[in-house]
Design goal:
The complex is a heterodimer of chains A (about 140) and B (about 130). Chain A is mainly alpha-helical and about 140 residues long. Chain A has helices at about 15-35, 40-45, 50-70, 75-105, 110-140. In chain A, helix 3 (about 50-70) runs antiparallel to helix 4 (about 75-105). Chain B is mainly alpha-helical and about 130 residues long. Helices cover about 70% and strands about 0% of the residues of chain B. Chain B contains 3 helices and no strands. The longest helix of chain B has about 55 residues, at about 45-100. The chains are: A mainly alpha (about 140), B mainly alpha (about 130).
Amino acid sequence: MGEPSPVVVLIGRRPPHEVLLLAVSIPLGLGMLTRAPAPASVIALMPAWVVVAWATALMLSGIVGVASAVWTGDILRALWAELGALLLGAGVFATYTAAVFVSAGMRAWFSGGFMGAWAVANLIRCAQIRREVRRLTAGARLP
Amino acid sequence: MSAVDWPAVLSGGLGVAILGAVVAIVRAVMGRPLVQASAADQISTTALKLIVAAERSAERAGQEATDAKREATDARREATDARRAADEAAREVRLLKSAILAPTATLERLREMVGEPGANGSAGVRV
């Protein structure tokens, strides 16, 4: 018998902060598409169709992210879906952060800081997922 | 910084993020699943060592059981031999008793039956 493949320990797939923030993205994005206007800084800086794409991306990141968290099937699919959702979210929040700082300068330190940290956290988690996917696919025999 | 075309920059950034996300989601939907058959390969080295040790221990226990069975068979055989010897001795005693109690018993005849005394007085009975 040859040497066994190393055991891949996945970082927890359902961290509460991530799951809840993804979940809240759904009503926020849907609300901006249907009822409430997008943030003023975003509207001021981007064309209307980009604002719609921005709100849609926010909602989709929530839907895909929550789906990946509750997915009990293949772990690889769940990880890729989570990565996609977080990348969408990172783009949305980075766009908002830049827009709010451009519009309001340092007065936007609180909301901009929070959203910026959220975007960075998403990107860090994307890097973690990428590493885990690489290790999983290196250790497994695919059909 | 006022020369920066912020709408273009922000739209471009959002576009890149959307593109990356679409690629990842497509891989999630269309990608091949992780094969479950490699589960045996994922057993840690420690668990494998435990399994090997348990197998060796089971092998030793099996060997000991075989040895114990062989010893039990030998003991049974010795017990059978001892019983046969006891039956033979009982038969000799019965014969001597009959000879002693017979009305035609004589000392010479009894001596002849017992034969030459061996070490410690032991001797076979001649019938």
